[in-house]
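Session log. Operator J.P. requested a structure for one protein chain; no other inputs attached. Running the standard single-chain path with token output.
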Amino acid sequence: MQAQDIGFGTQIRKSPYFEATLRWGAKGFSVYNHMYIPRDFGDPEQNFRNLVNDAILCDVAVERQVEITGPDAARFVQMLTPRDLSRMAVGQCKYVLITSAEGGILNDPILLKLAEDHFWLSLADSDILLWAKGVAVHSGMQVSICEPDVSPLQLQGPKSGRIMQALFGDEILDLRYFWFREMELGGIPLIVSRTGWSSELGYELYLRDASQGNALWEWIMAVGMPLGLKPGHTSTIRRIEGGMLSYHADADIHTNPFELGLDRLVNLDMEADFIGKFALQRIRATGITRKQVGLILDGDPLPGPNARFWSLMRGGEVVGKVTSAVHSPRLKKNIALAMVALDAAELDTRLEVVMDWGETTATVVERPFFDPRKRLAAATTAHATG
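Structure written below.
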């Protein structure tokens, strides 16, 4: 494949793994955090099966890091999020929300605590580097904010533990879910975490030297292929099965945590102040008017994920929208995440769906659709590798 066949330009950044993904069969890309991300290695259903049965390696360097350091780093990071960080330990990861003054969600990153005065925000798709720099200007706090030379890879799937053991030895087996450690692979500096955007057992390898991107990709594939590893991309099927949010689709600046059922990520009673606290207190007091739900859509298997929001109707009135939809070959159902009016959110409610090519019906169901307790992702690596 020639780069000009896809139409790459210089205005969008390329990851340290970009050339490697082309060599290994990447056929399509999209843009995320002003950077190309591989979205197509062939059949998306086969990619899904590779993920849930074996393991895949994904270029997710688009998960850019916002690095926050300095004497007031911990206090500053707490100001950005409604999640209580007072007991967060060095070496721990936490899923957090970044909220606006109105209580809307600006990003839903993974936070890594590298030291008492050193943090990374591993971002979803929005410009939190600029937001954090703007907040810092008038904060009166001593912090330094930058984007470091850090580019993650995801190694995900039930065989990922065995592959990591082959790469790093037995010491990797006691790495706990949502924890990380600093490591090296043949002199390549990494941070390795038990996290990932797949709802499967998995790891993220944060490369700290972009010049080593090609070497790291090839090393992992060489060790992993005999153990079932394949190149791949983040799976829309699996992330919707797991009820995982895609920012700009399932949440945005106009969405608050309570609408998504993410109350556990909001502590309005802690002493620490944070941006959006008063707004979220008001929302909690007055209540929400809409809510995210799961849907099962009737009809033939969807040909692919929805490319736009689909209207949801009941009694001739619009009551919400489908934000993410796909056919799950494992569940043999069309599944979707949707935002609907509160009176249309009860389980078993029947709704009409206006798709691009016609209409169908749908039923409100619980979500996530598969492994709701995240037993697969949180499994001990020793058990996961047999």
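Operator note: The chain has eleven helices and 21 strands.
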